[in-house]
Amino acid sequence: MFIKNDIVTLRIAEPHDAELIYRWENDMDVWRDSETRVPFSRMQIEEFLLNNNDLMSMKQLRLMIVDTQNGAQVGCIDIYDYDEFNSRAGFGILIDEKYRGKDYAKNAISLLLKYCFNTLLLNQIYALVLETNVNSIKLFESLGFVRCGVKKQWYKTADGFVDQIEYQYIRK
Questions:
Q1: Inter-CA distances, 61 with 90, 102, 129, 149, Å
Q2: How far is Cα 126 from Cα 137, in angstroms, rounded to an integer?
Q3: Taking the complete model, does pTM exceed 0.85, yes or no?
């Protein structure tokens, strides 16, 4: 266990999670929102989990989102671009398709905020969202994230270019 509430538990991703992460990372339906262009091998994921999933040395950390009641692994949340000096980090979240719309993301982000502000003592966290990801935009805004910038025509898709929106949450 790492940090939890009645809905979700966040814990460090471990090597036994590699198969599930492999499936998520290679789901082409989420590549657009994660800005992924090429698949990951199982070995790459295992190597990351064994040697690079370290916030202090590698500046990134992957956490599994687990349903507190039944133990189902519903998604993952990543802290990246960790900058201890400037007291900030970015984050990204993925919820497995069958678990979306059930408040797992909202609860996981709330726990992440608590961890980032109370344990890591960060001043702010940020997230990058494509303008087409309406569900994430609604989620971040409902949690008090503030839109602080837009990168115009930032991401190329088969349908043309889309803007990327940056959201910030500054410690209160």
A1: 11, 24, 19, 25
A2: 13
A3: yes
Residue 171, number of CB atoms within 10 A of its CB? 14
The answer to whether the CB of 25 falls within 8 A of the CB of 46 is: no
Determine the CATH number of domain 3-121: 3.40.630.30
Q: What are phi and psi of 29, to 5 degrees?
A: -70, -25
For residue 172, give the nearest of 106, 139, 123, 120 by alpha carbon. 123
Residue 120's contacts (CB-CB under 8 Å, 6 or more residues apart) are: 55, 82, 89
Q: Which two tokens stand for residue 100?
A: 């979306």
The tens place of each residue's pLDDT in the chain, 172 residues long, gives 689 999 999 999 999 998 888 888 776 566 565 666 666 787 887 887 788 778 888 899 999 999 999 999 999 999 999 999 999 999 999 999 999 999 999 999 999 999 999 999 999 999 999 999 999 999 999 999 999 999 999 998 888 999 999 999 999 8
Cα 118 from Cα 120, distance rounded (Å): 6
**Helix crossing, 104-118 with 134-142: angle to 10°?**
50
Nearest to 125 by CA among 151, 146, 100, 154: 146
